[in-house]
Amino acid sequence: MRGRLKLIKKLRVQIFLLKYGITLRNMQNTALTAYEYAINHSYVDSEQIVVMGFSLGTASAVYLAANRPVAGLILLTPYANGYDLYNNVLPVFHGPLRLIVRNRLLSERYAPLITSPVLIVASENDEIVPFSSSEKLRDCFPGEPEFIILKNVGHNEIMPNKKTLDGIRTFLISIS
User: Fold this and answer.
1) In whole angstroms, how far apart are CA 172 and each of 26, 28, 60, 127?
2) CB contact at 8 A, 82 and 101
3) Where does 40-146 have alpha helices with state H?
4) Is the dihedral of CA 136, 139, 141, 145 positive or negative?
5) Which residues touch 166 (CB under 8 Å, ≥6 apart)?
6) 45-175 is a CATH 3.40.50.1820 domain
7) How far apart, in whole angstroms, are the C-alpha atoms of residue 175 and residue 28?
């Protein structure tokens, strides 16, 4: 949480944080509901909404950006699909065993639909999300997302990392 507060303070932006359930459908519905809530406020410029997701939350961020107009999409340690995550912990979800996975978290399915600018930050040393999955997702977008590669940075150190914060700041300036 400390990293998130540091991020908000440094970027000087308004942030709407979401807490969502663990099912994919719940994550998607929560993202859509939050978006609708935000655009119905007079102080929100609907043309300046930038969606950001971290780790598990990148699936709902990708889904939202694919289904609603957004000014930009920021993904911190994203993955192409849930199989990559699960197989990183227990490498058995291949072939027919893929059928038992309920939350497939298929960001790779929605990425080709996104037309807004995209920033991806991923670490080669992420112990939770395989770096190769972030690369795979990057290749699914129709344009060429900005891709920041961190080295010697663990999963929970990505958000407060100086290179991450500088990259987000530069990205936000470039799309404003």
Assistant:
1) 28, 24, 20, 28
2) yes
3) 58-67, 82-89, 107-110, 131-138
4) positive
5) none
6) yes
7) 25
Q: Which of 30-34, 75-79, 89-93, 153-157 has the lowest mean pLDDT?
A: 89-93
Q: Which two tokens stand for residue 101?
A: 């996975």
What residues have CB less than 8 Å from 11, skipping those under 6 apart? 165, 168, 169, 172
Contact of 53 with 61, CB cutoff 8 Å: yes
Q: Cα–Cα–Cα angle for 126, 79, 23, nearest 5°?
A: 115
pLDDT tens by residue, 20-77: 777 778 888 999 999 999 999 888 888 999 999 999 899 999 999 999 999 999 999 9
Report how far Cα 55 is from the mean position of its chain's Cα atoms.
6
Which residue do the tokens 């043309």 mark? 47
Q: Give the domain ranges of the chain.
A: 45-175
pLDDT at 111 over 60: yes
Which residues have CB under 8 Å from 51's CB, separation 6+?
Answer: 31, 61, 64, 65, 70, 72, 73, 74
